[in-house]
Amino acid sequence: VQLVESGGGLVQPGGSLRLSCVASGPIFSSGDLFWYRLAPGKEREFVASIDYRNQITDYADSVKGRFTVLRDDVLGPGYLHMWNLKPEDTATYYCNQEIQTTESGPLRQYWGQGTQVTVSS
Description:
The chain is mainly beta. 0% of the residues lie in helices and 54% in strands. The chain has no helices and eleven strands. The strands form two sheets. Strands 2, 4, 5, 6, 9, 10 and 11 form a seven-stranded mixed β-sheet that branches. The chain has a four-stranded antiparallel β-sheet with strand order 1-3-8-7, with no helix packed on it. A hairpin with a 6-residue loop joins β9 (91-100) and β10 (107-111). It is elongated, with a radius of gyration of 14 Å.
């Protein structure tokens, strides 16, 4: 199983981006989807999550009201819509997803390689 993020880039303060997280490989089912970010000199930070039923979302206080986490369906791509971006949002963003590869197998967490978001004028 491989997770690939995309959609990062350079954006001015107040701008917007949409990050995507696509899983490929043998996927029987998936669980919760998480977005994290890592900025230079800082610890990895939870950003947002959506549960396996695509019903419950959670956000870090720093992004509430500006970011939205979505998923087409439990087997589809995940997205992180980001509006009103601020310089402090600059970081590498990673998706993390629980995936079950066989009917009898366990849910395991997989990480993408990250996509860089830079907010600067």
